[in-house]
Write a structure and sequence with these properties.
Blueprint: H1 2-15, E1 32-34, E2 39-40, H2 42-45, E3 50-56, H3 61-77, E4 82-88, H4 100-109, E5 116-118, H5 123-128, E6 132-133, E7 135-140, E8 145-149, H6 165-174, E9 189-190
Parallel strand pairs: 3-4, 4-5
Antiparallel strand pairs: 1-2, 1-5, 3-7, 6-9, 7-8
Length: 194
């Protein structure tokens, strides 16, 4: 019992708090292993109007339900100057379901038009305080966090979405408006930390 309590306390402190709205993007030069075979950083994919970081993976049912919206959002907003990346921090599964080869296949099968990269040591996930897949972080063009949480309010069915949190935040960011809803609760599978 003592070991379980110690592990829980250690896990909470090791992860740290989730990145607060208004904070600057942490670890923008941390090297990620992209499915293209190249090494990239968040600085490399930064858009001139903002940057969207999606903590994701290959097998989480929540990711699978939402990822069609990753692609449709990317189709709309990359051309508007938003850099987008999906980051896989499931280090414990890098030799299995979340290997680079399986990530390549997953991205191809789901028509990803943005980088999809492994996060060695889950360094970005720790720095962001990300705990779920998917877990969304939107930064403005000065690398300041303006929205974090879920994509929208209905993972099960895109046609039943009543509040598209991320799309609203993107539109408000691009219009130079204040983000009305800056946070929502990320819902998904737990990141498989090392």
């Amino acid at each position: 019992m003592k070991k379980i309590i110690f592990y829980f306390i250690f896990s909470v402190f090791a992860l740290g708090a989730e990145l607060k709205i208004g904070r600057i993007m942490p670890e923008p030069e941390h090297v990620l292993n992209d499915i293209s075979g190249k090494q990239i950083t968040l600085s490399d994919i930064k858009g001139n109007k903002g940057t969207l970081v999606i903590f994701s993976c290959n097998t989480c049912p929540w990711v699978i339900r939402w990822e069609d919206r990753y692609v449709s959002l990317a189709e709309s907003y990359i051309k508007e100057g938003i850099g987008i990346i999906a980051v896989n921090s499931n280090v414990a599964r890098f030799d299995g379901d979340d290997s680079l080869n399986k990530m390549r296949k997953h991205a191809k099968d789901n028509n990803y038009i943005f980088p999809y990269a492994q996060d060695p040591g889950a360094k970005l996930a720790y720095a962001f305080g990300a705990t779920k897949t998917p877990h969304i972080y939107l930064f403005d063009n000065k690398n300041k966090l303006v929205y974090r949480g879920a994509i929208d309010d209905n993972a099960r069915n895109a046609s039943d979405v009543e509040e598209p949190y991320l799309e609203n935040a993107l539109d408000q960011l691009l219009a130079g408006e204040k983000i009305k809803k800056t946070t929502s609760k990320a819902i998904g599978c737990s990141i498989k930390f090392p």
